[in-house]
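for the writeup, i need someone to sanity check this before i put it in the appendix. the sequnce is what the collaborator sent (i think, or maybe the updated version? ugh). structure was predicted straight from it, no edits. if anything looks off just tell me and ill rerun, i have time this weekend
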Amino acid sequence: MKTYSLEKPYMVQSQTGLLAGVEFIESPNANTRPIGVEPELIVVHGISLPPNQFGGEAIQKLFTNQLNPNDDPYFKEIQSLTVSAHLLIRRDGHVVQFVPFYKRAWHAGVSCFKGREGCNDFSIGIELEGTDKTCYTVSQYDSLAGVIKALWQAYPSLQAQDVVGHCDIAPGRKTDPGPYFLWTALERLLVSKES
């Protein structure tokens, strides 16, 4: 399993829009960004499938439209969803990519950032395996910080202050990554990785 370390930072391959050395499972739930639109926002999400359970392949199956509604009662409620994220960071820090960064992943839904609607058009979505009621892991923060640093280097259009939660772009509709996500811990890691 690949986790972030200072000796081997993540790197975005400009030709493919993929993180070098990271597992890639292509999601059909993506399309082209509007012409001339570059990533300008990073959205952090939290997800667990089934709810409040970690591990397994359910998230991967959701993002690739292969979720079996008979595997869990909750899956019957979400079986018609066509969603994705650019990345998933598992509890152990393992990163899986589903959509190249130059494409639009379907992660934000109805959303608005600084008066601009349709955040999927101009954002990168990163899902953390977790819930609103559990702490995220040190490995997840470390991987997330490494990924964000790589994205900042690859896309000058991204600004340091424009890393937000799903709750920030869809208030009242979404609550993730939740109150247990420590923004100050992420900020410290990002500052330490900048030097």
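The CA atoms of residues 18 and 117 lie 26 Å apart. The domain at 12-185 is CATH 3.40.80.10 (Lysozyme-like).
thx in advance!!
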